[in-house]
Amino acid sequence: xxxxxxxxxxxxxxxxxxxxxxxxxxxxxxxxxxxxxxxxxxxxxxxxxxxxxxxxxxxxxxxxxxxxxxxxxxxxxxxxxxxxxxxxxxxxxxxxxxxxxxxxxxxxxxxxxxxxxxxxxxxxxxxxxxxxxxxxxxxxxxxxxxxxxxxxxxxxxxxxxxxxxxxxxxxxxxxxxxxxxxxxxxxxxxxxxxxxxxxxxxxxxxxxxxxxxxxxxxxxxxxxxxxxxxxxxxxxxxxxxxxxxxxxxxxxxxxxxxxxxxxxxxxxxxxxxxxxxxxxxxxxxxxxxxxxxxxxxxxxxxxxxxxxxxxxxxxxxxxxxxxxxxxxxxxxxxxxxxxxxxxxxxxxxxxxxxxxxxxxxxxxxxxxxxxxxxxxxxxxxxxxxxxxxxxxxxxxxxxxxxxxxxxxxxxxxxxxxxxxxxxxxxxxxxxxxxxxxxxxxxxxxxxxxxxxxxxxxxxxxxxxxxxxxxxxxxxxxxxxxxxxxxxxxxxxxxxxxxxxxxxxxxxxxxxxxxxxxxxxxxxxxxxxxxxxxxxxxxx
Length: 539
What we know:
- The chain contains 18 helices and 9 strands.
- The chain is elongated, with a radius of gyration of 39 Å.
- It is 58% helix and 9% strand.
- Strands 4-3-5-2-6-1-7-8-9 form a 9-stranded mixed β-sheet, sandwiched between helices.
- Helix 1 runs antiparallel to helix 16 (475-490), helix 2 (38-59) packs across helix 12 and helix 13 (413-436) packs across helix 17 (507-527).
- Helix 9 (280-292) links the parallel strand 8 and strand 9.
- By secondary structure, it is an alpha/beta fold.
């Protein structure tokens, strides 16, 4: 097949391709906007699979997982200035409901002061990490409003206790509550892996002290805005309808369904209800309204001091004693309660057994195991998403760092002078080489040398063939240029000085193209000046 016939076939192919491109343009744009490229999708899928594998390996070793989580949370909070990405329990309850004591039972150490008029004045964001290698607990404490002299990464429990106590007293002296958290990482061999936030207790009415309800609402809302927060609500051992924390949560979170589905409920100080719930039927009746409202409390007997208005050091010693005996005391009290139910059934055989939703939620250790299970499952599932986000942050930060380095370099006038001189020299050299035709390059790459016919074939087979080069001309109008060139080739009217048969590269190709376009324009103007003028004005 000669070149003339090839040119005719290419013209037909171009026309068909142009029509197909016009018909499919809109659908292609829609598809491109909705679907990522195969390469991007493939790379993303591969990376996601890698992250999932890493998450699975971490989840097999809880201590390693929680240590990794603590480092990630610290990075988000202190370096990125954003909330920690992993799930945490937010402890919420009325004043003196036993929130801080519950938190200390998680840690097996008293760290957050409870005193009349002081209490918890800001959130305490805590990560407990089991570390069997430690003989004594090791703590990290930080916070935006914490005195820098009290923060640290290798603190004892006594130092943390004094720091948190001093911080709460400082806020109490100012008569303030704060949304800025203290962040505590607690490592010890006698703790389970857990994340939670202790919040200030709510005063139920103005008659018992300064009304802090709006302050606590603000703190809770801010705390619950953090990603993947889950409420741990402490209810009092009294009837559902008289539990003020229920109404408080309804008001704070915009209705009961908005918080009950994302909560775990602990009924603290249940020893106050043991006598009234001395039979299975009485206990079941007591909890029925809770269950009807989708609240299934875990029953906890919380150790308390007869007197808590003690100096901080004395308070620390007394609370350590309480914590040491807390588990044994709780188990003994609940065992006596169960035995009381059995004795009651001896005299009243038809009395109800304790409902499974009550029986299976007795004791702090049961609640703690359930919370730990929820947290670890959520953390392992969320880890790939967090890793992907961090990878994006790292890439953006590295790009920003490189830009800053370049900007810093360009701030030095001497450096700028050198760079500009090098650029100008290189640009001038390349322009001259391109316009003159680089013979050295042509000799090194003989396989890419092209005569005029080959150049036109390559152009027509490339993506540029179906691209508009002008601002308003259509593809059909631009096709007229190719038709004019094909006519000159078919009729052998290309001037010899254009050297159509010679193989060029670089600048020589450019010079030949310029001469060819001049010939086309001049020839077309002679035969049909109107057509040429229309093409020029629309292109």
